Amino acid sequence: MTLQYSGTIAFQGEPGAYSHQACRDARPGMEVLPCRTFEDVIEAVRKGDADLAMLPIENSTYGRVADIHSLLPTSGLHIVDEAFVRVHINLLALPGTKLEAVESAMSHTVLLGQCRNFLQAQNINRITGADTAGSARIVAEQGDPKVAALASELAGEIYGLDCIARHIEDKQDNTTRFLIMSRTPDLKKRGQGRMMTTFVFRVRNLPAALYKALGGFATNGVNMTKLESYMVEGSFTATQFYADIEGHPDDTNVRLALDELRYFTSNVTLLGVYPADPRRFT
C-alpha cells in the first residue's frame, strides 16, 4: 500500500513540471504549490505557506542544477529526504493528432537536446520554450495540431494533450535527484536502508588543508558520494565545499571523520540527515 502524506509541498515551475512529478511520486497526497523561482520555493516553506520544498540538485546527464548549492546553506531549511526521479520525455499533442502530422516540437532547450535522435528520425523541427510544462500549456492554448510539446505525461493530463510518443529520450538512464527540505531537521535514523548526511564546509588557509580535512573519511571507512566546490560571494579566494556521505553522524566512523574535518576547517554546517533513496544504489 502506498503511504499517503498530508500538508503542502512547494516546487519550482508550472503544474506538470518534472518537479511536480517528483512531488507526486515522493509525497503522494500532499497539496502542491507551484513557485516561480527556487528562492520562492524556499521562502514559501520559511513563511509557512508550504510544509516541504522539492528542489532538484543534480541530473545524471547534465550535472548539478545551477544556483541550488549556493542557496542551501543560507536557506534556513533542512534536508529530510531525497528522491530520484526518472526523466521520461513524451511527445504531447492536441487530442486526435497523429504523429505524422507533427511538424515542430516545443520544450526547454535541455529536453530538446535529449530527444535529438527521435526528432531527427521523425523530421520534427525544434522550438525552444521557457520550460517543459509551460510548453505543453502553450501547445494546448494555441490549438495548432502541427505543433507538439516535449514534457511529462503529467503535463499531458493537466493540459488535456494526448501522448502520441512515450519515453523518446536518447538516454534511457536519465535521472534527476531531488532534495526534500523542511523548516525543522529530522536527525533520527529512519527507514530500513542506509542513511545519508549532507554538509558544507570551508577549509582553513593552510597548506594541504583540503587533503587533510578529507583524510578522516578515508581512514574511517566513510564513503563520500559527492564533493562539489563553489565560490563564496564571488570571491576567488573563498571556497565552500558541499559534500554527501553515507552514514549517520551517530555512527562511530562518521563521528570520528567529522571530528577530524572540523579540526582543519573554519566552518562546518550540517544541511541534513536522511534515508538514502533505494534507487541511489541501482
From TrEMBL:
GO terms for cellular component: cytoplasm. The lineage of its organism: Bacteria, Pseudomonadati, Pseudomonadota, Alphaproteobacteria, Rhodobacterales. Transmembrane segments: none annotated. Its EC number is 4.2.1.51. It comes from the Bacteria. It comes from Paenirhodobacter populi. Keywords: Amino-acid biosynthesis, Aromatic amino acid biosynthesis, Lyase, Phenylalanine biosynthesis. Pathway: Amino-acid biosynthesis; L-phenylalanine biosynthesis; phenylpyruvate from prephenate: step 1/1. This is prephenate dehydratase. GO terms for biological process: L-phenylalanine biosynthetic process. The record marks T176 as: Essential for prephenate dehydratase activity. It holds the Pfam family PDT. InterPro entries: ACT-like_dom_sf (IPR045865), ACT_dom (IPR002912), Chor_mutase/pphenate_deHydtase (IPR008242), Preph_deHydtase (IPR001086), Preph_deHydtase_CS (IPR018528). GO terms for molecular function: prephenate dehydratase activity. PROSITE patterns: ACT, PREPHENATE_DEHYDR_1, PREPHENATE_DEHYDR_3. It catalyses: prephenate + H(+) = 3-phenylpyruvate + CO2 + H2O. Residues 8-183 form the Prephenate dehydratase domain. CDD domains: ACT_CM-PDT (cd04905), PBP2_Ct-PDT_like (cd13631). Residues 198-275 form the ACT domain.
